[in-house]
Specification:
This protein is mainly beta. About 5% of the residues lie in helices and about 40% in strands. A four-stranded antiparallel beta sheet has the order 1-2-3-4, with no helix packed on it. A four-stranded antiparallel beta sheet has the order 5-6-7-8, with no helix packed on it. The chain has a four-stranded antiparallel beta sheet with strand order 9-10-11-12.
């Protein structure tokens, strides 16, 4: 089974999150000839470049729409779980050991800007509003905030007080994992979490509310669409649609019980939701109905990326592969 972003770690040390980088020198990931075929967990497409991250600190780059990849030097061997780019040059990646990496040159070189292995809380996602202000979220309710582009990170005030008060269940000693963060066209932030928890911020993370949940199993992602329309997905093929920013939900038929891990809206409006067992759910009516496209190899999918020309880049336990344009183009 694919090691998706909800990696299980054993134990947690008490106390506050470390605010400075550990003094030890980082170990660099090994260059591997078959890195593009190893376990990868997330990816991003930005201005013609595609980047993917995964186990052993691997970061791969493709400049030809996923037809070939090259591996870059990375100052960690920890599994990387998520990557986010603000523009063509500036990006961040996060992963196990609470590591946060930053690049200023489109991913060719990386620096370690945060590292707290003693916390035993991996990070699962990262998001930035602009070049300075962003969040990293992860296991056991971990939420870090930066206001200087990642030079320093701290438990945000939201993460300390207001965040825990967003839900009666989210108090001292909670261990719910925060799995995915996304922003809608209307400027709202959504966090999909463990145990059926969904959170929303209407002020870029300064305060949060807990949304009514349609399901008690874990959610692994949201896909904001136009206006206040939102898709929410997670365990056992559960997929929900909201037309009021998560205030109420409608369950969508998926014809699968596979875990759903990621979603994307392509330039032509096609929506694709990916999951384990080679699951691809495709909608061409704005997310109102979905058709199951089961991949023959049934290998687990962690992320799906919309690439140039309407093609899809699939990221998962097999590494990275390019799907023919026909699925993405709606033929």
């Amino acid at each position: 089974m694919i090691a998706v972003r909800l990696a299980i770690v054993v134990g947690i040390l008490s106390g506050t999150v470390a605010y400075a980088i550990a003094p030890d020198e980082p170990e660099y990931s090994d260059k591997a000839p078959l890195a593009a075929h190893s376990l990868l967990l997330d990816g991003v497409a930005i201005e013609g470049r595609i980047l993917a991250v995964g186990q052993w600190g691997h970061i791969l780059i493709s400049d030809d729409n996923g037809q070939s990849w090259h591996q870059v030097d990375v100052p960690t061997r920890a599994t990387l779980t998520a990557i986010f780019f603000f523009d063509r040059k500036l990006g961040w990646a996060v992963g196990h050991d609470a590591i946060i990496l930053r690049t200023h040159d489109g991913g060719e070189t990386w620096e370690r800007v945060y590292y707290a292995p003693e916390e035993e809380r991996p990070l699962f996602d990262v998001w930035f509003r602009d070049a300075e202000y962003g969040f990293a979220i992860g296991a056991y309710g971990l939420l870090l905030r930066t206001t200087d582009g990642g030079d320093t990170w701290s438990l945000s005030e939201v993460g300390g007080k207001d965040w825990t008060e967003a839900s009666d269940d989210f108090g001292e000693g909670n261990d719910f994992h925060l799995n995915h963060i996304a922003r809608s066209e209307t400027g709202r932030l959504f966090v999909a979490a463990e145990a059926g928890k969904i959170y929303r911020s209407d002020d870029d993370g300064e305060s949060w509310i807990s949304l009514p949940s349609p399901y008690h199993g874990s959610f692994f992602g949201t896909l904001p669409l136009e206006n206040d329309v939102l898709l929410l997905f997670g365990l056992r093929g559960h997929l929900y649609r909201s037309e009021n920013a998560g205030e109420s939900w409608q369950r969508m038929e998926t014809s699968t019980e596979a875990m759903l891990t990621d979603g994307v809206r392509l330039k032509d409006g096609t929506i694709v939701v990916a999951g384990l067992a080679g699951t691809l759910l495709v909608s061409r009516d704005g997310g109102r109905t979905f058709t199951l496209h089961q991949q023959a190899d049934r290998q687990g999918l962690a992320t799906v990326i919309g690439a140039d020309g309407g093609s899809l880049i699939l990221i998962g336990e097999f590494g990275a592969t390019r799907l023919p344009e026909t699925l993405g183009a709606g033929e």
